[in-house]
Amino acid sequence: MNKIITLILISIFLASCNLDEKKIDQLSIATEYYSALDKSNYSEIDLWFSDSLAIKEEAYEQVYSQEEYIEFLKWDSTFNPSYEILEIEKIEKGIKAKISKSDKRIQFLHKEPFITNQTIKFDKNKITSVEIEYVNFNDSIWEINKNQLLNWIDQNHPELNGFIYDQTKNGGKKFLRAMELYKNKN
């Protein structure tokens, strides 16, 4: 009987050691997340996220299911995004990163990459939220360029109206088409 108890205790001890070795650290998860965003590779999203993900940008918050977030990433991918980690570090409640993001939409509307400070929070090594604080967002340039585009599309290509709010792959394609038509208007 003592041998059986000893074997069980040894098995439990060895199993707990293996779990610690297999545990992926949060810094690695965050780095993989940004790499996947940069490559528009959302096929392994369920490896990093819990059932839902909260994205907080300043005062705005959107909670996505995994399926909804994948649809959003499909929209994002239509603009050929480029994500660059400028700084990244482990903090007490997750990961803090400084990220540069550029894509066709951002270059068109903002004229330069977004720089953001992002805080990623976890629950059991699954990302539960990403808080985004813009460092260099120029609201006036963004609004001027957005309004010029929307007004021109409304007058010249009303069949594309609503693209600005359609964050699906199809909406992204319409957004690209609208920018292309606007750029080639002369």
Gyration radius, in Å? 22 Å
**Helical proportion?**
40-55%
How many strand segments?
6
Low-confidence stretches: 2-23
Return the CATH topology of the largest domain. Answer: Nuclear Transport Factor 2, Chain: A
Protein name: Nuclear transport factor 2 family protein
Organism: Robertkochia marina
Please describe what this structure looks like.
- The chain has 2 domains: 2-137, Nuclear Transport Factor 2, Chain: A; 138-186, no CATH class.
- It is an alpha+beta fold and 186 residues long.
- The protein has a 6-stranded mixed β-sheet.
- The chain contains 7 helices and 6 strands, in the order αααββαββαββαα.
- It has helices at 2-22, 26-39, 45-48, 66-77, 104-110, 139-156, 169-183; strands at residues 49-57, 60-65, 82-91, 94-102, 114-123, 126-134.
- A hairpin with a 2-residue loop joins strand 3 and strand 4 (94-102).
Tell me briefly what this model is.
By secondary structure, the protein is of the alpha+beta class. It has helices at residues 2-22, 26-39, 45-48, 66-77, 104-110, 139-156, 169-183; strands at residues 49-57, 60-65, 82-91, 94-102, 114-123, 126-134.
